[in-house]
Amino acid sequence: MPEDLQDVERELMLLARHHVLPSSTYKRSGRTLDRSAYLLLSRIEVEGPMSIGQLADAFALDVSTVNRQTAAMLQAGLVERIPDPDGGVARKLAITPDGLRRLHDDRGVVVGSLATILADWSDEDRRSLAEILGRFNIACERLNDYAWPRPARVGDH
């Protein structure tokens, strides 16, 4: 096995181990979203209202899994069912104001944690990290045939 790939494997394993997401104190407060809600709400925020089938396709998950996850989000008041804005038959899930607030609160905690972790890094190093992680994720998305929509940045072509 090539040594550089072993190094990448080890660092990815360790990355998955670290808790950049909200601290354990914040999690115990009951204010934090679970991982699936954070991911699903993030996707709906970017794409707009989505059906359960669209979410299942976007995450390459079984519809029953997404149905369970979205049922919990509906019960928690994070999303609501709305008629398809495009006139389709399937109802779609839209983020409620409370769901959007909680998503932004959690994202603020995550970004704050990242700011602490990367406080000693230069702007250039942070940009390089974001670029390399983006390239890695896009390669994974191509391999698995599903893409995550990304915002256009100034200077993107």
Automatic annotation (TrEMBL):
<feature type="domain" description="HTH marR-type">
    <location>
        <begin position="28"/>
        <end position="126"/>
    </location>
</feature>
<dbReference type="InterPro" id="IPR036390">
    <property type="entry name" value="WH_DNA-bd_sf"/>
</dbReference>
<dbReference type="GO" id="GO:0003700">
    <property type="term" value="F:DNA-binding transcription factor activity"/>
</dbReference>
<dbReference type="InterPro" id="IPR036388">
    <property type="entry name" value="WH-like_DNA-bd_sf"/>
</dbReference>
<dbReference type="Pfam" id="PF01047">
    <property type="entry name" value="MarR"/>
</dbReference>
<protein>
    <submittedName>
        <fullName>Transcriptional regulator, MarR family</fullName>
    </submittedName>
</protein>
<dbReference type="InterPro" id="IPR052526">
    <property type="entry name" value="HTH-type_Bedaq_tolerance"/>
</dbReference>
<dbReference type="InterPro" id="IPR000835">
    <property type="entry name" value="HTH_MarR-typ"/>
</dbReference>
